[in-house]
Amino acid sequence: MTVSQVGPPEVQPAAQPAPAGRPHGNRALLTASAALVLAVLVLSALSLSVGAGEVGAGDVLDYVLGRHGARDSSRLSLVVGDLRLPRTLTALAVGAALGTAGCLLQAVTRNPLAETGLLGVNAGASLGVVVGIAFLGVHSGYGYLLWAFGGAVLASALVLLIANRRGGGSPMRLVLAGSALGATFGGITSVLIVNSAETYDRFRFWVLGSLAGVEGFTKLTSLAPVLAAGFVVALLIARPLSALALGDDLAKGLGHRPGVIRVVVAVAVTLLTAASVALVGPISFLGLLAGFLARAVTGPRLTAQLLLAGLIGAGVLTGSDVLARVVSRPFEAPVSVIIALFGAPVLIGIVRSRRMASMGMTDPAADESPKAGRAAAVRAPRPAGSDSLVVRTGSLSLLVPRRAAVAAFALAALLVGAVVLSAYAGQSQMGLSRTFGAVFGSGDRFDVLLVQKFRLGRIVAGLAAGAALGLAGCLTQTLARNRLATPELLGVNDGATAAVLLSATLSGTFGAWWAGPLGALAAVLVVTTVSGGLGQRGYRVLVVGLAMSALASAVTQVVLSRRSLNSAGSLYVWTSGSLNGRSYSVAVPVLIGLAVLVPLALAVTRHLNVLRFDDSTAASLGVAPGRVRLVCMLLAVGLAGLAVGICGPVGFVALASPVIAGRLAGPLRVPVVGSMLVGSALVVLADTVGRIALDGAEIPVGIVTTVLGGPFLLWVLLGRSAATRV
To answer: Could you report the per-residue pLDDT of 661-703, keeping only the tens digit for each?
Structure first.
């Protein structure tokens, strides 16, 4: 393997700035460094001068310099010495730490999209902190650090393991794998906090990533040695890590040990990330911003990249914190939302860049995918009698594929079993005979009320939402020619969730059925417009969808943080995906939508089969690809939005349903009906598991599917022959 094949994007000749040894290259670097230092100083001065307390720049300068007896003023000591100065220094330290950690991750994974938030390291550290809060009542800086360190170690190890797998280190695939890790860690975190009002109250502000809670120097001084150790390790490993960029074989030839280098990098990233999360909570996109901008200035010089990434991270976080204090006075915006507003467009810009296209990472493999085999099978079908059954009624005849029919019957039986289990299972002990009697209105009055009023209404809602999600996933995967192009990964679910919460905030009533579809439509329009369409840029549209999800999720968290604890707690359960309290009336909009949209989806099934080919082939067969995609996109958006309106964002059902149904039914046809059956069964079963898993408590269905769906996404991404399956 040549150097050009394994090297990071920054060693590509066309993208390099002037070599490090040239004087004008060094001059440009020195100029940029001086400008960054000046910008950081200015932003630090602004951070000290802006905020509550009616203390201006002159008073701050007097306090810092000790002039005019300013330090004897209790008001200045409180505002500047106890609030603004610790907050500013914390922003500088955490920003530098996250910028350096992002740069290290990008170098060791040879991936310009690597970042602690996108790769799930922040989520792992957050899980560790929540475990400490929930089980041990941890509330100190060192307590947060220890638990954050454990979670970050686990996440970092998994990220590097994925990056070293064959095909796992490609930029898009690694980001999606990090998203799966983050979702799984987030699901486990939700399990711990969803049934504890006290833990959730402490978590909902901390999880936003904010410096508003920084008071005094206690936490910063206690964690400063950890941050310092992380910075020292990062600088010491820079030279060996530069050699690793040439490939493992060349690095070994130069006397380095690639395995040891990766372990040391993981230690540095873990120290920096864990301390940052313990101080201010999880903040995403900062490492991506800092690494991208530093690489644009320095080129392949890793030591210079690390130094500039630290400066850029410190400046961006400090500036964002200043904006957070002034954009929504008298309230304070979470700093993570401000950074997401900058980081998401940068992520989109990187994905759309020519460099990513030149690496061959923007699109999934087309020639090697199983779709080629499907195309061959469709072009040369087997004789009807070999795999199909001819059903004749008078002058009418129908060709029924045997495998698809058997799969449909099996899935229908599974769905019936799931419904029976859900009606039977629960905290009250009823036998099957009593359950069936209650279904038909006979037996004890309490049994009838429990089954008909609560369980059956909940089951109907779950069936409707699952069918809608399964069908939406089938449509989006087919029109994008990508198994991963599902509503949750395209930002549709989070967009619909944010729209529902915003409508509830503005109107004062929750549950407007139209808000979900409108939010979903807005999200998908943004994603498809920015990414250039769904049909030809599979991985690009997925990463743009992740950016959209981050923005919508930030909006959701801000809305929750502004509500009372009782209101926020109940809404948090819904935003996790829950069927609790759902009834027949809630399911009516989705049932009406299914009654209209399913026949339309079945009507376009023939066109969907053809759409799996390239556009020119589809056009030659009389299908208009653009029109079919538009219809399918609108169908999928409407279905996903209605499902979110019922039960919130239930994740990974839309991903798993078409994959499972396709495996059962075979590759010759789009599994529209099978995806609906699988989706309904998955939602009902997950809801049943959530009701009975914990004694006296309930786990929302969306948390169950997220905990199980993250590993499923990793299997799809990194399983055997993953490079040709996705």
So the answer is: 988 887 777 888 899 999 999 999 999 998 888 776 788 898 8
Residue 302 CB contacts under 8 Å (≥ 6 apart), including other chains:
107, 238, 239, 241, 242, 245
Tokens of 233: 């390790």
Give me the residue label for tokens 């390099």: 16
What's the Cα-to-Cα distance from 675 to each of 113, 139, 406, 628, rounded to whole Å? 32, 46, 14, 19
CB atoms within 10 A of CB 186: 25
pLDDT digit string, tens, across residues 38-89: 999 999 988 888 876 667 677 777 777 777 677 777 777 777 777 888 899 9
Cβ pair 117, 547 in contact under 8 A: no
Closest residue by Cα to residue 644 from 585, 601, 586: 586
CA distances from 412 to 360, 419, 677, 713 (A): 42, 11, 7, 25
Contact 169, 163 (CB under 8 A): yes
List Cβ<8 Å contacts ≥24 apart for 194-197.
194/572, 194/573, 194/576, 194/699, 194/700, 194/703, 195/694, 195/697, 195/698, 196/134, 197/565, 197/569
Residue 272 phi/psi, 5-degree rounding, is -65, -45
User: What is the C-alpha separation between 84 and 711, in angstroms, rounded?
Assistant: 43
Query: Look-up: residue for tokens 């996705």?
Result: 726
- The CA distance from 162 to 182, in Å, is 14
DSSP for 422-436 reads HHH-SSS---HHHHH
φ and ψ of 397, to 5 deg: -135, 150
**CA gap 86, 82 in Å, rounded:** 6
pTM over 0.90: no
